[in-house]
Design brief:
single chain, Beta-Lactamase, six-stranded antiparallel β-sheet, 8 helices
Length: about 250
């Protein structure tokens, strides 16, 4: 049954989102009766959904959700790992892949700095969106209504320079979009600075952010613009590997 199911699922694409029994049978070169039985069994198993008015089948929401989960949790991490390693080699600082999870940013992959004094994070760490460079990069390209749903006042103070005003934070996201990267200095931790850039998928949706973080004693605010090009370039390479066609235009660093 699994082999038969894969034959059917392989027929679906961005250009072919729904299929009727006759069309499916013709594409597979199978009898209509056999194809009808396959489609019905796949609907019962939760692979497909049938439109009552037309009788046509489409990929089920359950299967689509599993595919999205696999794409984000496996593909992005696997593809991003070499970019993170290259980023650490180029900058000497800890590099992370961070994804959006509800109203938090979650670190899902990390390569540590080889330096004895470094920022210490961990995979699985959940962080506030408003107080991190990664959080800003994840939010900045979302529709305004989605940003408002995730960033509601009062914003918690985490360090001496945390942005606690929603209005100020909204202006910060506009700045992030115009520059193509985000920064945070003393916003999550007093001695922590970071720069992050968004990772886009084939549809132009932000699915993650690459970020480097370091002690302010070594990387003050003035040093972040010099590190930003490496972070943006690494994020663009991951985006391209995910099928993103239009890479972000490089700014005048």
């Amino acid at each position: 049954m699994l082999r038969k199911a894969m034959e059917v699922l392989n027929l679906y694409s961005a250009e072919r989102r729904e299929l009727g029994v006759m069309e499916t049978a013709q594409l597979l070169g199978r009898p209509k009766s056999t194809t009808s039985r396959w489609l019905a069994e796949m609907e019962q198993a939760g692979f497909l959904e049938r439109e009552e008015t037309t009788g046509r089948y489409r990929i089920s929401m359950r299967l689509a959700a599993l595919g999205e989960l696999a794409r984000q949790s496996t593909s992005v991490q696997r593809i991003a790992r070499p970019a993170l390693e290259a980023l650490v080699a180029a900058t000497g600082e800890t590099a992370n892949l961070v994804v959006l999870s509800g109203k938090e940013a979650v670190n899902v992959e990390m390569v540590e700095s080889p330096r004895p004094v470094k920022h210490v994070g961990w995979v699985g760490r959940r962080m506030p969106l408003h107080a991190t460079a990664a959080g800003k990069a994840l939010l900045a390209w979302l529709p305004a209504k989605d940003i408002r749903a995730r960033v509601k006042g009062p914003l918690a103070q985490h360090a001496r320079a945390t942005i606690t005003s929603v209005a100020k934070y909204t202006r910060e996201l506009e700045h992030v979009r115009s520059h193509g990267y985000a920064t945070a200095v003393s916003e999550l931790e007093d001695d922590l600075s970071a720069v992050a850039a968004p990772v886009f998928d084939h549809a132009g949706t932000v699915v993650g952010a690459l970020t480097i973080s370091a002690p302010i004693s070594r990387v003050p605010r003035s040093a972040l613009p010099t590190l930003a090009p490496a972070v943006v370039e690494a994020a663009q390479k991951v985006s391209a590997a995910l099928g993103h066609k239009t890479l972000a235009k490089k700014r005048g660093w």
